[in-house]
What we know:
This protein folds into 6 domains: 34 residues, no CATH class; 111 residues, Topoisomerase II, domain 5, CATH 3.90.199; 84 residues, Gyrase A, domain 2 (2-Layer Sandwich), CATH 3.30.1360.40; 129 residues, Topoisomerase, domain 3 (Orthogonal Bundle); 174 residues, DNA gyrase/topoisomerase IV, subunit A, C-terminal (Neuraminidase, 6 Propeller); 96 residues, no CATH class. 24% of the residues lie in helices and 28% in strands. The chain has 17 helices and 52 strands. The strands form 16 sheets. Strands 27, 28, 30, 33 and 34 form a 5-stranded mixed sheet that branches. Strands 42, 43, 45, 48 and 49 form a 5-stranded mixed sheet that branches. A 4-stranded mixed sheet has the order 16-11-10-19. A hairpin with an 8-residue loop joins strand 51 and strand 52. The radius of gyration is 41 Å and the shape is elongated. The chain starts with 22 loop residues before the first strand and ends in an 8-residue tail after the last strand. The N terminus and C terminus are likely disordered.
Amino acid sequence: MNEDSERTEMPAAGPEKEGAAVQPGRYGRLTADEGNVRKLTGMYRNWFLDYASYVILERAVPHAADGLKPVQRRILHAMKSVDDGRYNKVANIVGQTMQYHPHGDASIKDALVQLGQKDLLIDCQGNWGNILTGDEAAAGRYIEARLSKFALDVVFNRKTTEWMRSYDGRNEEPVTLPVKFPLLLAQGSDGIAVGLASKILPHNFNELIDASIAHLEGRDFQLWPDFPTGGLADVSRYNDGLRGGAVKVRARISKIDKRTLAITEIPYTTTTESIKESIIRANEKGKIKIRRVDDNTAEKVEIIVHVASDESSDKTIDALYAFTDCEISISPNACVIRDEKPHFLGVSEILRRSAEHTRYLLRRELEIRLDELNEAWHAASLERIFIENKLYELIEGCRSREEAYAAVDGGLEPFKHLLRRAVTAEDVQRLTELKFIRISRYDSERADNEIRRIEEEIAHTRHDLDHLTEYAVAYYTRIRDKYGKGRERRTELRAFDSIEATKVAVTNAKLYVDKAEGFFGIGKSMKDAEFVCDCSDIDDVIVFTEDGRYVITKVSDKAFFDKNIHHIGVFKKNDERTTYNVLYRDGRNGPIMMKRCAIKGITRDKEYDITKGTPDSRILYMSVNPNGEAEVLKVYFKLRPHLKKAITELDFSKIAIRGRQSQGNLFSRYAISRIQLKERGASTLGSQSVWYDEEVRRLNADGRGVLLGEFRGDDKLIVWTSRNQYYTTGYDLAQHFPDETVRIEKYVPGRVYALCYFDREQGYHYMKRFVPEVSGRMLFFLDEAGQCDFVCMTSSAGARLRIEYGGTRPAEELDADGFIGVKSHRAKGKRLTTHPVERLEFLEPEPDAAAGGPQEETPPTGAAALEIERPQGDEATLIDPAQLNLF
Length: 887
């Protein structure tokens, strides 16, 4: 705010005289031509700028020094001024704060409740609301509060506080509080000012202390948000909390069974009520399919979602993230007040400044303490000299104070060289005011001990000042040890996979088409047209015309592409397995071409051509196969002279799958009379490679993560969890795995697993070998009571177990296969040894190069012969597809 900005006075009331000179006004400037019309330029130039500056500096944006907004700082100061260790009514605290904050009781109470709900600075008693459910706090006369021990320890120190007069001049209030902790990053802050906003996300208490220590020691650090509501967070675009960054936050959703989901943690800034309402809205709009949702939240979040009987729970989880508040994006904007101006600082810079400010405050405290100790040493030494040398006798006979002061000062002259500073008039006055009883009971030995104690404390304080960084690190460590318990990270950091809404949306609409007229859509006006399929109202559709042109567009109530639509269907972007088998005529009388292709990423609403694009081309046959199926056609040619074979077969499995822009292979130059489907055929696609990405805990076919193997048909995965459970499942890429998942691998029927565990009840280590059962439900491979601790496991035949004992007993190895036979996973197994075991480890056998491993399946190459009609002769000729001319 510009304090020197010009302010103009309101002109005197009365009509303006015609031709009067320009007059300044409080709300703007008046001119002769404008008459009584007032411009707002002056108001914007002065008043609005002043108002904006005031809101930024005094209301909405926290200060970099203590991380507090003015109302928060005044609340804490008011609570400290009345603090006696007991709880105070919130209404009384609000009234006390109004001495410093001139903006009403409602804003003070709201700010106080928000501070209390952060569970850091204020010790609350009563109903303070619930950040999980969004319930409001009780009235101020019913709830109580006092400063927490943490606040009393790190927030206040009157000796290092800078003071200013309150708004009415009657009281003193702190300019900033001497906070020795990154409070701003621990609590977070959210404020909207005039022309800018501030949004700083909360971070973990212990991680902030560790980062502060790392900065003081010259090490690198990194900070990520940690929310009181828990949940999952993707911080890959956090951008150090600066503008332009974003944090995706998800609810924690787990599967109770195949038809029941449980939401146990929610995203920051949401409530269980808003989550429930968003789920109900999504269900009403047809985005998800659920039977009902129950909110059982009490102390902890528990929202139960009952999935519809015909819907996948894995797909529903993705749909909840895509269409409800179970996933939100938060955009941070770290703005703070520094040097009376707003500054945009990253959270790393804020923490560095906080650590340096804490070191400065600790130094000031040590310097103040050193001054106090020096004064105490000076006073104690001066008193000892005064009493032991009986200088108090010099006062006898003095007729005035000044004469007594002069006598004592003269008596001290021989001893002044023993002191560390000059003797002042205040020192002499204090000596003359000593009571006789104190002099008579003076204990020289006790005084010497006290002086030695002060000298030791002085030396210790000077040492801390000389080693300020170590002192600051020790301070942070003490704060963490004292207050860090129970403040572990609540939000799990995880990379999120992108969820395509079109893949998880339920089919809440029906697609219709009028092929002759070229209209298609899901609106009511299309219900008399031909039904195509069920779809979602956010799907894309692909539309082909008879001449081979096609377009991909968003589904709508009613749309037009062109007359004579040949095919329409739902389009899935980047789908590599859906294959289009096409037989088309190139031009009016051109050759017949055959083609197989996949249509993946293209531009929406842009027209393409599946033929060569020759005018008057025509699609003779087309099929859309979701898994690369290749049918066999019986083709009838039009009869003509010299045509001895009028019927032939076309097996699409003999044609290689090319890109959508390929022109295809020549099939025949004869005209076709009709085409008949002879055999539908099976998929020509090879087995599917499946990877597991540990970062997002999802399967994929894109090569991200660890390759689990090649899958086809009824192949399965086996999933192991940290709860000593396992289950088998298919390789559906959309499925979700439990948060406790520790191992995922391809299930091999008959594979034997050997594992070791420690039985806490018996006190011994055991081994068991078993073949897992195929089951979609969780099965315990150790006891359900939780008395056994898993140690190690192997699935390699011929593995050996190495047992290392504590002390001098040598290690030994045993053959796992020969030690115990294969039994059920429920069996207890066989005890390994009665001696204390330090370490167990399976030693995998060396791979046998001669035996070799499992061979990779070779995908079909299409090298078989293909029977094609040749126009040059009368008989069909066998041609290798590899020699066909590709256009």
